[in-house]
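Sanity check

After download, print the first record. It should look like this:
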Amino acid sequence: MIRSHYVFWLVFALMMIGLYVVISHGNLLKKLIGLSMFQVGVFLFFISLGKVDGGSAPIISEGVETYSHPLPQVLILTAIVVGVATLAVGLALAVRVFEAYGTVEEEELLERDQDEATT
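Expected structure tokens:
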């Protein structure tokens, strides 16, 4: 059972590593890297669900009886574009935060915001 579903275990491990990085690190850039790892895990999961053993691309040809479903690949292509755009916005925000505060560490940002609020 485990041997036949090793792809799902690898995808699950990749997703959990990404989630751990997002939760455990205070650096904004490391959080973005963890978010990207989590996204890649989700992408691989959906693509692996769309694969059919012995299936062919959905192009009608002689001798092919089983086809793989093309919808997961189409959805993942769209999700990759959205993920890249989200990462670009996150990196742009991290650059602006660094320019404004001089750091990308979450704890230091919270301290500086609290200091500015009290003065």
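If your output differs, re-run the checksum step. Summary of this record's structure: The longest helix spans residues 71-101.
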